[in-house]
Amino acid sequence: MTSFKPRQIVESIEVLSEPERRRRRSVQERVSIVHETMEPGATVSAVARRHGVNPNQVFAWRKQYQDGSLAAVKAGEAVVPASQLAAAMKEIRELQRLLGKKTQEAEILKEAVEYGRSKNWIARSPLLPGDDQ
């Protein structure tokens, strides 16, 4: 008869004392865990179990990492959704276009006033720039 020895599985358990109930991970730890999940053959569940983290949390960190917001938090910058950034960039381009258009209109009007003055079509008026002489 062969004796059967059951395999013992030993897992480390981290006990947190009150009042803090959850472990706070640094950005470096989060990035390290995310990198582990991207190694060939690694699964998010196995990596999460090894580090004592809920797999959903690791998936959230992976998404933040892919969006670049995990690194932004590391740099101390505010995180803005990509849709808000795209909308702001579109608005900036539109405002720049309008500013260019208005600047061009102002230059054309200045040239028209100068031309009108040279032909004496426009009388001197204190309301026009340069007429306060």
3D structure, described in words:
- The protein is rod-shaped.
- 57% of the residues lie in helices and 0% in strands.
- The longest helix is centred in the C-terminal third of the chain and has 37 residues, at 82-118.
- By secondary structure, it is mostly helical.
- The mean pLDDT is 80.
- It has a domain at 27-79.
- The chain is built from five helices and no strands.
- Helix 2 crosses helix 3.
- The relative contact order is 0.06.
- It has helices at 27-37, 44-51, 55-67, 69-75, 82-118.
- Pfam families: HTH_Tnp_1 (PF01527).
- Belongs to the transposase 8 family.
Write the layout of secondary structure elements.
Layout: H1 27-37, H2 44-51, H3 55-67, H4 69-75, H5 82-118
Helix pairs in contact: 1-3, 1-4, 2-3
**How helical, in percent, are the residues?**
55-70%
**Alpha plus pi helix count:** 5
Biggest sheet character: none
> What separation lies between the terminal Cα atoms?
119 Å
Strand content: under 5%
Rg result: 33 Å
In short:
With 133 residues, the protein is an all-alpha fold. The chain has helices at 27-37, 44-51, 55-67, 69-75, 82-118.
Keywords:
single chain; 133 residues; mainly alpha; 5 helices; 0% strand; rod-shaped
